[in-house]
Amino acid sequence: MFLVLSNVANESAQQLVEMFPPGAASLVTASNLNVSFKAGICFGDFSASKLTIGGVRISAGEISGVISSIAYFLPQEFYYIEPADREYVCAEVSAFFVYFLSQLRCKKLNPSTTKTLTGLGLHRVEWMKAVRDVGVPVQSARLRNGQPVDVGTRHRGPLMRATCIGGTIVEEGIPDRVGEHLHVLSRAFSMPYLCADFATARDGEYLLADLWSVPDVTVPANREAMVRFMQA
Amino acid sequence: MILLVGRIDDDPMAMVRAALAQARADLLFFDHRNVFTSEIEWSLSASDEECTVTVGDTVLDMSAVDVAYVRGSNFFDYDEMRGEPVDGPLAVRAAHFEAQLYAWLDSSDAVIINRSGPSAANNSKPYQLELIQRAGFLVPETFISNDADAVREFLAENPDTVYKSISGVRSIVRKLEDRQRGFIDDVNWCPTCFQRVVGGTNYRAHVLDDRVLALRIESDQLDYRYGRTTMVATELPPDVADRCRRLTAMLGLWFSGIDLMRTQRDDWYCFEVNPSPGYSYFEMVSGQPISAALAQFMMEAEARVRAVRPRTKAERYNMSPSGDALTET
Predict the structure, then answer these.
(1) Which of A41, A53, A90 is most worth mutating to test chain B (most B CB atoms within 10 A of its CB)?
(2) How far apart are CA B129 and CA B296, in angstroms?
(3) Burial of B173 by CB count in 10 Å (0-12 exposed, 13-18 middle, 19+ buried)?
């Protein structure tokens, strides 16, 4: 069983589920959690824990992969809960999934952290420093109260977007050097999904300008690469 | 320099600030209430990084920070937010300021008590419980579920059970009585944590890097925070103290508050670790000088960091001698 964790408004997530063989994948959202996902987790014996996902009863060990297109649940997604209780329920469900995802021994796009359901969960300040520390060149940046401040254009041409999914670059025609940078980052962060914008410096080097680690399932080519990665 | 980030009406912050001031520490206090008006600016290039925080006329070069003690606070509770939309410009500005400040602290080479990533393990109790077990403590039999039928099965085998929140949201730990059993279907709407009751004596350990300050606790309530409670300073057995140190280190924390239970068979259970301990309650009840120990730890850490750090920017901050937002003590 493959799990796709998303929100109810993301129609691409349902399309992703339908790209797997019938019954092989299931969509889990906060909005359908009370009917789509039931769990009884025995601490210390996780793989034997009983789950009912999309009406099918399985053990946790039978989950073969997770694709999550959301880093967080939002209180408003729990529309079926009394408004005054939504924040609490959201915190509880999030805490549950942080543990649940951390215990699954399967392919994950992307792994969760203590802060997020998927991806790095890092502020730009943090990931830019981490990227620089692993030797990938970054574009100079300035942030004031979270907002980018123009530091002047030091690159030529438009930004180039590249996506790495399970070691494969999704877009065609991406320069090898950009692919190398993405592979370095994917390994350094242990994130099989990374999407990045690169600028081209005047000396021809590619500088990282932006980075996303929450899988984007709205791009058809990404969905195809995700299914291939999960089924490989 | 030691930076304190929090609110002066927060007892743990006020007590350590007083202890640091008494010890004449090189200290700066950032009042968290200034998140609406303060400014943080950060820049990164191939060879350099700079970060400044501005409160009024006062500018702090963040590279001067050797140690920071951070006590999180919810700005939505402040008077400034009364009548303001939660996604309005004031809230967005404060959220961006706060996020950038914490991100800088988390990624700096200063001693941060405590960084937000490691602290976040406390937001998922079962996740933290996994680490507690790895550190060598026993943990109570635990069942987490949003399936009422599965919960009934667990309770049939474990009738003596408490229930509590899974997240870091504070909840009163209560024994499951007949009255609550009538509401078991409610877990279908919200996953809940059930734990078999462990009997014994409560202990609380505050760990400051290698130092362990322990208390033995007697109370007339299961959750001693809500009962008539006495606390006595005590020494933990060396192997238990070692487990506390190991657990704190595994969680990536400098300072922790660990809830322990010693059974009559001398087994040691650990229930949870607080990464931002409200130690003031324990100090006020027991008289144990935790704030002084925390202040001492910060001053020693500051000396260690200063000894190894390049100090090229250390003195480049301006201080406002009378400012109450960013105050030199």
Answers:
(1) A41
(2) 30
(3) buried
Q: What CA–CA distance (Å, rounded) separates B53 from B72?
A: 17
At residue A101, what is the residue type?
L
What values do phi and psi take at B26, rounded to 5? -80, 100
Strand A155-165's sheet: what is its strand order? A168-169, A155-165, A193-201, A206-212
> Inter-chain contact B169–A81, Cβ cutoff 8 Å?
no
pTM of the model as a whole: 0.90
Per-residue pLDDT tens digits of chain A, which is 232 residues long:
999 999 999 999 999 999 999 999 999 999 988 888 999 999 988 887 889 998 899 999 899 999 999 999 999 999 999 999 999 999 999 999 999 999 999 999 999 999 999 999 999 999 999 999 999 999 999 999 999 987 665 666 789 999 999 999 999 999 999 999 999 999 999 999 999 999 998 888 999 999 999 999 999 999 999 999 999 9
Q: How far apart are CA B312 and CA B98, in angstroms?
A: 26
Q: What would the 3-class secondary structure string for chain A be?
A: CEEEEECCCCHHHHHHHHHCCCCCEEEEEHHHHHHHEEEEEECCCHHHCEEEECCEEEEHHHCCEEEECCCCCCHHHCCCCCHHHHHHHHHHHHHHHHHHHHHCCCEEECCCCCCCCCCCCCCHHHHHHHHHHCCCCECCEEEECCEECCCCCCEEEEEEEEEEECCEECCCCCCHHHHHHHHHHHHHHCCCEEEEEEEEECCCCEEEEEEECCCCCCCHHHHHHHHHHHHC
State the nearest Cα–Cα gap between B206 and chain A, in angstroms: 23
Beta-carbon pairs below 8 A across chains A and B: 171
Contact list, B123 vs chain A (CB under 8 Å): 91, 94-95, 98, 114-115
Q: Which of A123, A132, A149 to mutate to test the interface with B (most CBs of B within 10 A)?
A: A123
Contact B191 A113 (CB under 8 A): no
Which value does ipTM take for this structure? 0.92
